[in-house]
Structure prediction request, 304 residues.
Amino acid sequence: MINRVSFENNPSEVEKLLNVLNERVFLKTEIDIVYSDLVNWERYNLLSIGGDSDKGDWKKLNYIEYTWVKIIQELRQYGFTYDEILLCKTEIFKLVKQGELIEASKVDSKNVKQQLGSEAIEELNAISDSNYDENLNIEISIFETIMASAIISGVKWSFLFFKEMPGFYFPISTEAFRGFDLINKPGIPMELLSKTFLSVSLSDIISNFLVDGENSYEERTISILTKNEHKLLKQIRKGYNDVKSIKIRFKNDQMEMIEVTTLKKVKLESRLLEHIKKGDYQTISIDTVDGKIVNFENTQKIKL
Prediction:
């Protein structure tokens, strides 16, 4: 499992993240793909598990291979042929030099700043202005680049595939849309969205091996709010019909803890036991009428 927080908004950790993504952790027999399908896909060169290694790596997939396998699964279910998927693979796994990616990020500096902050821009400039670095000539696939970006930025990404355009794919996110606006070409994605396509959520696949799962890709904080203020709003909106009260504790003029008390009706005592087993409470208060449990208050403490 990967803890996205370790890499969040930290471009300097890209190399470390890429090393993690190449770790072999998924046994072929343990993923939810029919084994014979994996064998057929490998035979047709739709994927290559383990590369040229002779250390038994063919038994396990790394995070990159697992993600691509899940995309193949979606493409096959949509009706893409082996030949069409092979064309997509050829394009999506094309290699580019790290130095070229850095220069491209400089051109789109405004968008990078909005996603990762001004410090990220300073780091990029420091790399490009430094002496020659052999790492800048190391090649990385477009697919790996987008995967790393999705994890570091916490932004939801999807791949669009078009049967009427063999081999063509289009990576898309809210930030990508913003990027087209910044270069005054918003019509490009809108023209593509008017066609028939398959959208495969990269973020949904990645969330399968992130510590926080789907919560890793919650909507990003509104810029006028602090992270703690954003968390408070989420708690207010979450199950608001059951919320009885919300208390906020401060320390040094900063929100330190939120206490959310919910009132839930319980028709059967067995249902109460289910709530207790979930362990989703800190303090519980039970109300009874004529000896029967009617509801309970559940106070959850959330440390900020």
